[in-house]
What does this fold into?
Amino acid sequence: MVMASRAYNVALCRELMQAVRGSGREIPLRPGRYESGDTLRLPLRGVWPDVRAEATFTIEKFIGGGFAGQVYRCVLTSLVSDEGASIEGLTVGNVYGVKILIPPSRFARRFRDRIYQVAFQVPFSAQVIASACEAGVIWQKVIRRAAALEFGSETSVADVYAWFFDEGQQAYGEVREWVEGRMWRLEADTRLGERRAWRTADPATCGSPEFIAKRQFMWRFVRLLHRMGAGELARQYEWGTLKSQPNLLKRSGHDADPAAGLCAFDFRAGLALLPFLPMSPIDVWLILRGLWHGSLVQFDRGDMTRLRAFIQEHQDHFEGMQGMLDALERSETAYRRSMPDITHHGMRLLTDRSLRADVRAGLVTGYGCADLVDEAFAARLNGGGAVFSGFYLLGAIPVLGRFVRRCIGNGAYRRHVKRFWAERAYRHAVWGAGLRHRLVGWIRSGRVSDPRARRLLATPAWFWVQAFTLRLLPAGLHRAVAEPRTVWERISATWQFMRSFFRDEAFREQWLGDQVAAGYKDGMLSEAERDRIMQHVRDPFIIKYLRSLGVHFATLPVTQIVSVIVATVVLITKLVQGAGWGVAGAYFGGILLFFQVIPISPGSICRGVYVVALMIRERNYRDYLVAAPLSFVKYIGYLAFPFQMITTYPELARFMGSRWAMDAVRIVPVFGEHGALLEHAIFDLFFNVPRVVGAWCARHARLVLNLWMLMGVTIYDIVTRSCSLDVKSTTNLLIAVVVLCVLPRVLFYPVLKRRGEGAVDPTGVE
Ligand SMILES: Nc1ncnc2c1ncn2[C@@H]1O[C@H](COP(=O)(O)OP(=O)(O)O)[C@@H](O)[C@H]1O
Ligand SMILES: [Mg+2]
It folds into this structure.
């Protein structure tokens, strides 16, 4: 999962973290993540051969991070090894992906660690245990070699070169190949039924070649992973998790062939699969399968027996890898022995003394990374006995247990507590550091503007008041309450945008150019598609489309304003009539909600009226046949013109549709990630399905209009029978039914027919 990064003042964050580091706090506050432009100095270990080297990376960009860790795109700026040997695959000056196995968000970290704790009864191993990190990277190397068997080339899996321990965040991580590529294209497709036979279909002949090709690749890859004993890692590529699709990129330069250039790069799961906590539909099946094979908890356990058999079977192919495979066996064993993992070790924990010693060592390492113990106390814990048992049990006490453990186990923490109470200056330094550390998070999430951040630094009391009050609100709301001026600024910026968009043709053209450029950069458009779109920017229809978009933007607030006015009027009326605040409030909320869910709203009506007016003024019905009715529909009306122009400007239509889907789906946490299945489903639902339905209706226009007329008449009949309407209402209803339901059949249809459009095809589907 990727957490989108917004623009904020990186220099200010860096300045604050500098102050945090210089505060002299006995236990340093660690950064939640690094900034673009930061330098990372990391002691690397080559995956194979196991060469050590000191590396310096410059972070080009913080990409994001989900539950497993945080990803950076970095340039390797220096690499120095004692032994003179270099780490295979690393070249100074090249770009690499660095993943540090600690999530950037505190919530994600806690959630991941809790689940892992329940599953294996230790802190997240890949973050704190060397063998766990090492096993992961060697697995990736082995999988890469195996992938060549299945797909013909190792490039179908990203390479991984080194792993390291980052002192700054007390976490392990890995250096992997940076894959230049993109997610799938959201494809315009009206043959959705073909997807049912995805397993055997030829992607090139399908309506959605990239979708089918990716699905086939993942299916084959999952089966390969199972065959070679990496069944639990296969969960990262199971289609049905709904969020595995972004773990696979399509390398750049393979646009012509939908199946070419697919590359798997993420073998680090974040969330363990607990038998009682499925997190996606396929998890239910995976859990049952795991139970069948005797595995209650699934995460990244490799089946070494299977792997050995697989390698035996393809001995020639794995030639020269024996050393690496031995290292994998060693690290897998050490990793598994570093945790209690009672669902796998079971009774052996009671009977096997050396296993207990290993588990203890693993736990103690985890305590060290969490600053619970210092080295001296870690050595005592490693001795076992009552000291260890007592310390272990203390962990069961929430909150207080952690405090007591740190007091007992960590000399620096004891000094910290003592100085905090005894020394006024130290206390202030600690508060100052805490404030700055939190403020960095506020700046990144947009809770605070730069000037206010500086003001809060000068008035710490005001900061702490907010930290316990407004901090509980979502970031945007916190900002709006604390800085009402920014709300006003945003409104006025939006107003300016809409005004310029509405009035200024050059501005509109520029806007479209920017959108297209961004789409090209994201890989949504190929170079040829981008150029074709840009050639047509001045076509009369596109000019009209952009103008209508201006109307669309302008009408966006209409519904909100109308709904608030209506809701307020009703609220006041109810209060005046003597209703309590509870009832009146419920009416208020209900009305706001009502306006959000109805398919046609005041805003969309304005837009529809505009398009109809355009149609009448130009006496051009054909060009607006699809756009006019659709413009009246909320949400989807934005796509009215793209639907209309699908045959003439297919690239632009698809592009606007996919941007819309991407923006819409972003509000869904985890599953709304770019490239995940939900995004594709939303695009299908709002772009492809309406076209399929539209095409069907066009082929059966007479039937549809007959049914529509019948429905209108029936409703009229039912309403007039069951409600005792006065004459005026009955007449109004009759007029409405005739205009909306009868006229289209009686007048509109014959007109269309007369124009020689035997097969009216408003959706442009061939
Ligand atoms: N080696 C890489 N090359 C290109 N993009 C990458 C690479 N590693 C990560 N990314 C980008 O970062 C995102 C998150 O990385 P990933 O390793 O899948 O982390 P997680 O799934 O834990 O969030 C990916 O979806 C991808 O867009
Ligand atoms: Mg991932």
Summary: Residues 181-343 form one domain. Confidence is low (pLDDT under 50) at residues 1-5, 756-766. Residues 399 and 546 are 58 Å apart (CA to CA). Residues 246-247, 266 surround magnesium ion (ligand 2) (CB under 6 Å).
